[in-house]
Input
Amino acid sequence: MDDLRPFLLAGIAVCVAILAGLGLTLLLPAGAPPQAPTAASAPVPIGGPFTLVGGDGLTVTDADFRGRFMLVFFGFTHCPDVCPTALEEMGRTLETLGEDSKRVTPVFISVDPERDTPDMVQDYVAFFDTRIVGLTGSDAQIDAVAKAYKVYHEKVEIEGGYTVDHTALTYLMGPDGTFRQLFRPQETPEERAKAIKAAIAAEPETTPQEGS
Amino acid sequence: MDSKALMVAVAAALFGTTLVFAHSFEVGDLAVGHPWARPTAPGATIGAGYLTVTNNGAEADRLIGGSSTAAARVELHTMSMDEGVMKMRAVEGFEIAPGETLTLAPGGNHLMLMDLAGPLVEGASVPATLTFEKAGTVDVELMIEKMPSEGPGSSGEHSGHGGMDHGGH
Output
């Protein structure tokens, strides 16, 4: 019987929480729940502010990309297979997008700041497509952006060095910097371009007034 | 480089274009199909090689290693995807059962070329030697080419990403 007590207590706690929530809901003025997202359109908490270092060694933040879609992939230059595949496919996605590619900034963020210097990363991504922006940063900066994007990354020792296990998904972020969609490695550039075109069509370009 | 590899290299230099069309190698009952490697970015120290090995014999064999003049070491690597996380590991060998084909392809298992002597340039080729447990060694040429964007490799290559389905844990 003693075993059940924690559950009982937990149950009571949940009930209290639900009742409290109900009370709160009833107290709120009808039609004005400012922070309450609907189930269907709840923003997925992927992404957010970041401060990183660009190929020229200068600071780059998420705000620099505002107004454009971002196609984000995390990787490292000592990655023989997955990263070249992802970057090549990123280039092909841009090609397939045609004119629409002008509204998309492809971004590669290093998960290996120890080895990946800013110019190394930039040279690496330019090899696949000169439009790709290569970013790296300090350990703390990379940890922060990886955390924001829910990207797992871990150094794993191998003979003669190390590799980095990392999340190999590609993220589409909107012009407002919020998460739109993720692409899995098995999705082709054509499928990605189609989805990105749809996202772009849904958000017509606004005249760039707000910045000035 | 042994003299045989040198000859292959010279032959590749002389007949590079024909090799593209007749690019397979045999050792014992094993047929090695279209060995190739990706071009590498300037300054890259590693590269990845791909090929197929079909076992036409009655006994299983294993690809247990390789070497190349283009790299200090050639390792055999698995690549698996586990809930979107890429994991790469060195392995001792890849088994090829009788009648089966081992496929090393982008987004999956591959040859890892460690400490490249220089960048792998598209259109060139580099000699490599593959070692099998039973069939012994065979000299091959890795064509340096971009991932096929069209054609047979394309759809298979994407299901080849299915490396993620056999994460092996």
Q: What stands out?
A: The CA atoms of residues 65 and 148 of chain A lie 16 Å apart.
